[in-house]
């Protein structure tokens, strides 16, 4: 099995992450940075897919905006009950429809496919941190999505619907929060992907994960609209770090020290879930060695 190491230095991993031998010799950070760059480039191949994704997302943005306009116009007293204006709520809903684009499932599918074909055994032997390598690939995909999907979508939505912009003091915490949101999405996908080592199909786990995120992250319904007892539970879970925290910072519902505290909450959960992923990997490696994998 060790004979595959040198060949692995010259081969691509995943969707064509071709790293030269010079990069491999240049140190860990260079090869991870190269992976981000190559993945970013590879995602630009499918131009028509990009166009249809933007159009589909724009329809969702419009639908979410109109839904909350209808709710606020129904006479339920929503602004006075929540302290959030119609413009802020519409902005929250539209940004949520854009943010979902950054949480791809490519890592989950790719790792599960590698496990089913047995190629994961060779990947685990290579001189990289397996989890961090896939995190870099996810960053590459997210950067491409941000530039070619989210930015055009946001620009069009801002010009057409006058979305609320964040205050100057909330820009930096929002950017940090967005980074941790993507990292949290990756860690959850990675842990689900690890189940492929024990189960033939993980589609059910993937569906359950997505359902929990939709209900508990504030992606469709802001968490401040949930009953107080439910809010008390959800505020300790990592899911709000994917949608509720960055979106609340953007519209100004959370600001100042409270915003930085929320970013710290995301950071802690990111570290915990990354550590959990490393623990699972270590366990799987021991199992593969024991069984002669």
TrEMBL record:
<dbReference type="InterPro" id="IPR010390">
    <property type="entry name" value="ABC-2_transporter-like"/>
</dbReference>
<feature type="transmembrane region" description="Helical">
    <location>
        <begin position="92"/>
        <end position="112"/>
    </location>
</feature>
<keyword id="KW-0472">Membrane</keyword>
<keyword id="KW-1133">Transmembrane helix</keyword>
<feature type="transmembrane region" description="Helical">
    <location>
        <begin position="173"/>
        <end position="197"/>
    </location>
</feature>
<protein>
    <recommendedName>
        <fullName>ABC transporter permease</fullName>
    </recommendedName>
</protein>
<feature type="transmembrane region" description="Helical">
    <location>
        <begin position="203"/>
        <end position="226"/>
    </location>
</feature>
<feature type="transmembrane region" description="Helical">
    <location>
        <begin position="263"/>
        <end position="284"/>
    </location>
</feature>
<dbReference type="Pfam" id="PF06182">
    <property type="entry name" value="ABC2_membrane_6"/>
</dbReference>
<feature type="transmembrane region" description="Helical">
    <location>
        <begin position="50"/>
        <end position="71"/>
    </location>
</feature>
<feature type="transmembrane region" description="Helical">
    <location>
        <begin position="132"/>
        <end position="161"/>
    </location>
</feature>
<keyword id="KW-0812">Transmembrane</keyword>
């Amino acid at each position: 099995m060790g004979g595959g190491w040198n060949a692995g230095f010259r081969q691509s991993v995943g969707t064509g992450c071709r790293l030269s031998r010079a990069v491999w010799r240049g140190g860990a950070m260079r090869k991870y940075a190269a992976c981000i760059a190559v993945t970013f480039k590879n995602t630009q191949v499918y131009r028509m897919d990009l166009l249809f994704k933007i159009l589909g997302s724009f329809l969702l943005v419009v639908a979410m905006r109109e839904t909350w306009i209808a709710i606020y116009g129904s006479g339920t007293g929503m602004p006075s009950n929540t302290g959030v204006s119609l413009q802020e709520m519409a902005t929250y809903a539209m940004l949520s429809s854009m943010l979902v684009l950054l949480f791809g499932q490519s890592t989950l599918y790719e790792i599960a496919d590698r496990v089913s074909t047995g190629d994961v055994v060779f990947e685990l032997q290579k001189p990289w941190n397996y989890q961090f390598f896939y995190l870099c690939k996810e960053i590459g995909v997210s950067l491409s999505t941000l530039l070619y999907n989210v930015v055009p979508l946001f620009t069009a939505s801002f010009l057409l619907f006058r979305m609320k912009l964040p205050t100057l003091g909330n820009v930096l915490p929002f950017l940090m929060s967005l980074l941790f949101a993507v990292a949290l999405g990756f860690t959850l996908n990675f842990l689900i992907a690890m189940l492929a080592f024990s189960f033939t199909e993980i589609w059910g786990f993937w569906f359950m994960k997505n359902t929990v995120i939709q209900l508990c992250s504030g992606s469709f319904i802001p968490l401040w609209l949930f009953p107080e007892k439910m809010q008390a539970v959800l505020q300790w879970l990592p899911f709000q770090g994917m949608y509720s925290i960055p979106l609340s910072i953007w519209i100004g519902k959370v600001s100042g020290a409270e915003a930085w505290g929320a970013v710290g909450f995301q950071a802690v959960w990111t570290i915990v879930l990354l550590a959990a992923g490393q623990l699972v990997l270590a366990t799987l490696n021991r199992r593969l060695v024991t069984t002669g994998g």
